Amino acid sequence: MSIRAVHHLNCATMCPLAGFALGGTAFSRGHMVAHCLLVETERDGLVLIDTGFGTRDIAGLSGLSRSFRLLTGPKLDLAETALAQVEARGFTAADVRHIVVTHLDLDHAGGLGDFPQARVHLHSREHAAALARRTFKERERYLAVHWGHNPKWQLYTENGDTWRGLPAIARLRGINADIGLLPMHGHTRGHSAVIVRDSSQPTDRWLVHAGDAYFHHHAVAGDKPIPFGFAAFERATQIDPAARRASLAALRQLRESYTDVAMFCAHDPTEFAALRDRVLPVTAAAS
Ligand SMILES: [Zn+2]
């Protein structure tokens, strides 16, 4: 068994304006999470998948724009950072040897700097886009301060491998466990889902962290429409509309075709509640 445990963490709560457009009531605010995974492996230490906001964001040192804060209403709670939740489980920052990111948007890459020794794995197109920040939208979404510590980047492109019929990067350098990238471009230029074979459960299953390829579970499950605010948000944040639609269709197909796949996106609190970590952190358990 190469994976001992998978923890589902919320590393950023956001309460966007106009909750009614996001499936809530008339004057409510919305509720979004930043669903991250902390994977305990047999041989490769801890692997963190996405990072939410980091300690610099909470301290107001990363330059989260006023418009972003106004629109999304981030809670900015130190206890929600990946670092705090790693430490609450009795580990240290140095135990996180690898980070795999779906993409480098500010609400996914904020915690990179809290784990300066970790190798950071991602699609090479995402890395190039985030460092170039070519368009206005990309200058808003990517904060260079999040990688100001010059991480040990591990970059990948499609290499002919497939997983469940989809182009995949099935092996990541230095990681023995079954963790890979599933390119799902469109939200950003190099956005990818992350696949994890969770062998810690009695029945093996594949977790598919779809990042921001969609924002609401209705997008991939059943035939109900998604709340219009999410549809508008998807369109407002996408960099390549055709690629985003193709990615969504592929994820939907994947979910329908395989019963051993547990799929979730980064920000849906309903999906998070179904999977969230139910193990008490060691500090809480000890008290
Ligand atoms: Zn996001």
Structural class: alpha/beta
The share of residues in extended strands comes to 15-25%
Helix content: 25-40%
CATH homologous superfamily identity: Ribonuclease Z/Hydroxyacylglutathione hydrolase-like
Strand order of the largest sheet: 1-2-3-4-5-6
Enumerate the distinct ligands: zinc ion
Q: How is this fold's topology laid out?
A:
Blueprint: E1 3-10, E2 35-41, E3 46-49, H1 55-58, H2 66-72, H3 82-88, E4 96-100, H4 106-109, E5 119-123, H5 124-132, H6 136-141, E6 152-156, E7 162-163, E8 166-167, E9 179-183, E10 192-198, E11 205-209, H7 228-237, H8 241-257, E12 261-264, H9 269-275, H10 282-286
Parallel strand pairs: 3-4, 4-5, 5-6, 11-12
Antiparallel strand pairs: 1-2, 2-3, 7-8, 9-10, 10-11
The protein binds zinc ion (ZN).
Zinc ion (ZN) binds at residues 105, 107-108, 212, 266-267.
Would you kindly provide a written description of the structure presented here, covering whatever features stand out?
- The chain has a single domain, classed as 4-Layer Sandwich (Metallo-beta-lactamase, Chain A), CATH 3.60.15.
- It starts with a strand and ends with a helix.
- Strand 4, helix 4 and strand 5 form a beta-alpha-beta unit.
- 26% of the residues lie in helices and 21% in strands.
- The chain is globular and about 45 Å long.
- The protein is built from ten helices and twelve strands.
- It is α/β, with parallel strands linked by helices and 287 residues long.
- It has a six-stranded mixed sheet with strand order 1-2-3-4-5-6. The protein has a four-stranded mixed sheet with strand order 9-10-11-12, covered by helices on one side. Strands 7-8 form a two-stranded antiparallel sheet.
- Bound molecules: zinc ion.
- The site of zinc ion has 6 residues, from helix 4.
